[in-house]
Each structure stands twice: as C-alpha cells, then as structure tokens.
C-alpha cells in the first residue's frame, strides 16, 4: 500500500490528517466490509509475516506514544514485559473514557471498531498475547453492542487466528480509567488503584504480565503497519511524532473532532473550527481536559506537543480542548469540574476523599457569592495537602483546575466573597444556542 501524501500544503500551514477518522462519515463504516474496502487488515497481514520482535521494533521506530494522557512511548512500554514463560500474558485496552470534555475513543469505536481490533491483533502478536480485553464504559450500551458485533465479524472471518478478544462493560466509574483500578474492576473487584510496584508489565491482570493502552493508541498501530513506521514518524515533531484526535468543544462556531499531526497550534485549530462564536472573544481554554492547567489567549501559538505544552505550564493529556469566551465565569466552570472529581473519588485516599469534599463546599459558596474572607487562600492550602499524596492521579487532577483558575483569574474568585457568579456572568450570555442579543443587565 502506498503511503499517504500529507505534505502538499502551503508553507506554514499544518493540514488535518484524517486517518483514524477518515471513515467516520462513510455509510455503515463500522462493518467489516466497509473497513476492508478501505484497506483494513492489510497492516495485520503484514505483521503476521514478521517476527514478534520485529513488530515491536517497528512500533518503537514509529515513535508512537500513548494517547491516553501520559504520552509514554508505546513500544517501550510493550518491551517492559518479561520474557515469555509460556503462561498467559494480556493486552487490556482502556476504553473507560469519561473525563469532562474527552470524547474521541468512544466515537472511534462507534464509527470504526475494526481499526481497534486490527491494532489489538498486531499488539498481541508483538507481546505474544492470546487473550486481549477491551474495558468499556457500561453506559454506552450501543457502542458496546457495536464492538461485540465487530469482534464477532473479525473472528468469524478468520482474521484473528488464535487470538480471543473479550469486551467487558464496566459499571461507569471514572476511577477505572486509572489502569490498576481498571484491572481490579476487570477481575471482579471494586475499582480501587493499586499500590505500585509491582507494575502491570510484571503483575497486571490476574497477576500476569499485561500491556495497558487506550483505544486511540492501539487503533493507530493499524496505520503504522498499513503504511510504514517511517510514514508515521514523518508526521508531528521529533519527540511528539504522529497524529492525534483533538476534541474541541465550547464557544467555537464548529465544535468537533479534528485529527492533526502534533505540533499544530490552537490558533490553527481554531481556524478549522471557524473561530470563536461571532461577537465574542476567547477568555480561556482547557488544553488537555479538566485535569490539565488552563491556558489563556497568550498560549494560542504554543505547538501542541507533549514537551511544548509542558514547557508552557500545562499538559497535552487527552487533547480534550474546551473553549470558553468572555461570557463565562471561571468560578462556575471550576466548580462544576470539582463537583465531578469529588463525586468520582473512590474514597481510598484520605487527602482525596476529604480534600475534594471541602473544595466543593468552598467553590459552591464562592459561586453563590457567599464566600468568606480568606477562602481563596484556604482553597490553595487544601490543594497543597492533596497534590502528590494520593494512590493515583485523581487527586492531582482535582486540584489542577482550582490552582490554575486562581493563578489566572484570582480577582474573579475573590469577587465570590460578595457577588454571585450568575450576576457577574449571566447564563443568557454564555449559552451557545441563544441567538437573541442580551439586554443590559441580563
């Protein structure tokens, strides 16, 4: 198969790269026939002619990094598994997508599940796995049914050989997006993070060596083998290679999924979105979802790579970009995010369990204009007692919107001592669907 030509664009313009998303608008795109008509499973056929070590080396050479948030090199992660001892070893795909603003893995399974299945088969060959799992949120029953049908199609067509793929529906807990809590849930226990070490590569599912990656990461493996590792590495930057799905929501003209190479800027993505809605201007934006520090218009030209975004003070994470214009109350947004993290805390860690509760109480009274003098300092004190003191990253995720919100908009938080957020920022001005101009005072 010839490589895609993604370079014929004007100088300085970064094109979109619809590779995983190229079939999303096709008729019955989720079927095996549609996927094979677009070259599906050619990568798997190529991988079957290669030794497992060569498959692993190709993934390393491609520069593929985990697309679930951490950005750890996928090939290197796979290589951490100990030598094959003839006993079971597992691949687990994390499809428990649930962070506010994150919406790429579920649409990918809905529109093109066979890309994930092909990637799983290739990964399983590399790590010598005979039983792979997909851990999916139980609420998305229609996606679960579609995945089950796709696995059945691929199995009956003889494409998977001896590989067995099990799709497992979880009970819908955000904490199970953390890989060790996911493993506990998959084993039939309540989803609680495990103390590490041991790490999953050594003792994961059923205490056996396990690779855990998210849907987008494994789905991209199919393209690497359909074309080549050099083709994949030609996109993006030296350290952040390849392409990714940027989920853009909020106060833009055309929200949606935009698949692009790493290194694209938010200013360029906004041009694909049609810009901020008419008559308004950008106030702040969440670059990596609610768990990453917020950005302001000053960061519009930061290249969206793992390294550049960290250098600018945030994290690229899952690329769940939420855009807010000047009509938005930062206090209201942060309060909703804190509500989410407080609700989803598993309760295992005292700093997270108690700290998120107290942050929620303070944020609610600031939003209501009933804050007490010193509440902002109290919030910062609480965040300092949560950060770095928990079993998993949920505690750190919960404090991030609070600390970054105060950093950029402290005065707005302090106005919550006397004035409700809905008076400072009336709801009618914020909603996207209200096209009538607001009257003075509304």
UniProtKB/TrEMBL annotation:
GO molecular function, one term: FMN binding
Catalytic activity of the protein: a quinone + NADH + 5 H(+)(in) = a quinol + NAD(+) + 4 H(+)(out)
Ranges for domain NADH-ubiquinone oxidoreductase 51kDa subunit iron-sulphur binding: 331-376
UniProt-listed Gene3D superfamilies: 3.10.20.600, 6.10.250.1450, NADH-ubiquinone oxidoreductase 51kDa subunit, NADH-ubiquinone oxidoreductase 51kDa subunit, iron-sulphur binding domain
NCBIfam families: PRK13596.1
Record-stated family: Belongs to the complex I 51 kDa subunit family.
Protein name per the record: NADH-quinone oxidoreductase subunit F
Organism lineage string: Bacteria, Bacillati, Actinomycetota, Actinomycetes, Actinomycetales
């Amino acid at each position: 198969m010839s490589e895609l030509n993604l370079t014929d664009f004007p100088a300085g313009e970064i094109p979109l790269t619809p590779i995983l998303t190229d079939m999303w608008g096709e008729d019955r795109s989720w079927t095996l026939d549609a996927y094979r008509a677009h070259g599906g499973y050619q990568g798997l056929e190529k991988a079957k002619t290669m030794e497992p070590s060569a498959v692993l080396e190709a993934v390393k050479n491609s520069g593929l990094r985990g697309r679930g948030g951490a950005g750890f090199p996928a090939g290197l992660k796979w290589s951490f598994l100990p030598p094959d001892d003839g006993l079971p070893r597992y691949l687990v795909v994390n499809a428990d997508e649930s962070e506010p603003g994150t919406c790429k893995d579920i649409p990918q399974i809905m529109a093109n599940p066979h890309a994930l299945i092909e990637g799983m088969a290739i990964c399983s060959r590399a790590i010598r796995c005979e039983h792979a799992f997909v851990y999916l949120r139980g609420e998305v029953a229609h996606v679960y049914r579609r995945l089950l049908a796709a696995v059945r199609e691929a199995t009956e067509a003889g494409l998977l050989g001896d590989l067995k793929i099990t799709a497992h529906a979880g009970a819908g807990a955000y904490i199970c997006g953390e890989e060790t809590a996911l493993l506990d849930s998959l084993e039939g226990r309540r989803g609680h993070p495990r103390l590490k070490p041991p790490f999953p590569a050594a003792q994961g599912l059923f205490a056996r060596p396990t690779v855990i990656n998210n849907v987008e990461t494994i789905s991209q493996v199919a393209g690497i083998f359909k074309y080549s590792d050099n083709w994949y590495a030609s996109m993006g930057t030296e350290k952040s290679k390849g392409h990714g799905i940027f989920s853009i929501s909020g106060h833009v003209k055309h929200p949606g999924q935009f698949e692009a190479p790493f290194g694209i800027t938010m200013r360029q993505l906004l041009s694909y979105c049609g810009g901020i809605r008419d008559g308004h201007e950008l106030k702040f934006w969440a670059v990596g979802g609610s768990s990453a520090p917020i950005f302001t218009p000053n960061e519009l030209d930061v290249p969206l790579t793992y390294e550049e975004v960290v250098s600018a003070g945030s994290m690229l994470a899952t690329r769940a970009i939420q855009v807010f214009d000047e009509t938005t109350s930062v206090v209201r947004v942060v309060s909703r995010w804190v509500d989410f993290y407080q609700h989803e805390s598993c309760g295992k860690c005292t700093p997270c369990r108690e700290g998120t509760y107290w942050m929620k109480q303070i944020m609610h009274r600031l939003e209501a204009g009933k804050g007490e003098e010193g509440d902002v300092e109290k919030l910062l004190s609480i965040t300092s007692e949560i950060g770095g003191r928990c079993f998993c990253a949920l505690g750190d995720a919960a404090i991030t919107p609070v600390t970054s919100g105060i950093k950029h908009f402290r005065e707005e938080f302090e106005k919550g001592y006397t004035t409700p957020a809905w008076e400072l920022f009336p709801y009618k001005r914020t909603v996207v669907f209200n096209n009538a101009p607001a009257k003075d005072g509304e």
